[in-house]
TrEMBL record:
PANTHER family: STRESS RESPONSE PROTEIN NHAX, UNIVERSAL STRESS PROTEIN UP12. This is UspA domain protein. InterPro entries: Rossmann-like_a/b/a_fold, Universal_stress_UspA, UspA. Residues 4-169 form the UspA domain. The lineage of its organism: Bacteria, Pseudomonadati, Thermodesulfobacteriota, Desulfobacteria, Desulfobacterales. Coiled coil: none annotated. SUPFAM superfamilies: Adenine nucleotide alpha hydrolases-like.
């Protein structure tokens, strides 16, 4: 049997995630493990500059890049604030859901991690960097007839993770 000392809990701050967090807390308490809580703010995909330059021209592309850099500089203060707001929301999420699950719980939150970019890569990278032994995440169950059983994030995490992944369906 493998020791589970640290659990990565991935949240999108939905009620499904709150339900999954209760499972993460229960497992952490049973194994004496710490929990790393993480949220990924999905970034926009970057365009292939060479292909884009062919379509709109190199000068226009450079002007657009300069404008984007200027806007990025201006947005840094706003981004920092966005991270602070997300950090506060995650802390509140952990506190409120944790109290619902087990008021007398001995589980410690090892870290709260907020990343930006590709969700699957963020989850896998955080799992490695934080040395987590397993991943717990909510899984919005879908009817196979209507939609694929797994969404892109779930499929990507299952494909790339070398650690066990627990998918928690929504509460009925």
């Amino acid at each position: 049997m493998h020791d589970i000392k640290k659990i990565l809990f991935v949240t999108d701050l939905t009620s499904n995630a709150a339900h999954a967090y209760q499972y993460a807390l229960t497992m952490a308490e049973r194994f004496g493990a710490a929990i790393v809580v993480m949220h990924v703010m999905e970034g926009t995909a970057s365009l292939n500059e060479e292909a884009l330059g062919k379509w709109i021209g190199k000068r226009r592309l450079e002007a657009m890049k300069d404008k984007a850099k200027e806007e990025a500089r201006d947005a840094l203060i706003g981004k920092k604030r966005e991270h602070e707001i997300m950090q506060e929301a995650l802390e509140k999420f952990c506190t409120e859901v944790g109290q619902v699950c087990a008021d007398d719980s001995k589980v410690t939150s090892d870290a709260i991690v907020i990343t930006e970019g590709r969700v699957v890569d963020g989850i896998i990278d955080t799992c490695k960097k934080q040395d987590c032994d397993m991943i717990v995440m909510a899984h919005p169950v879908r009817r196979v007839i209507d939609e694929p059983l797994f969404g892109a994030t779930t499929r990507g995490v299952l494909r790339k993770s070398i650690k066990p992944v627990l998918l928690v369906p929504p509460e009925q």
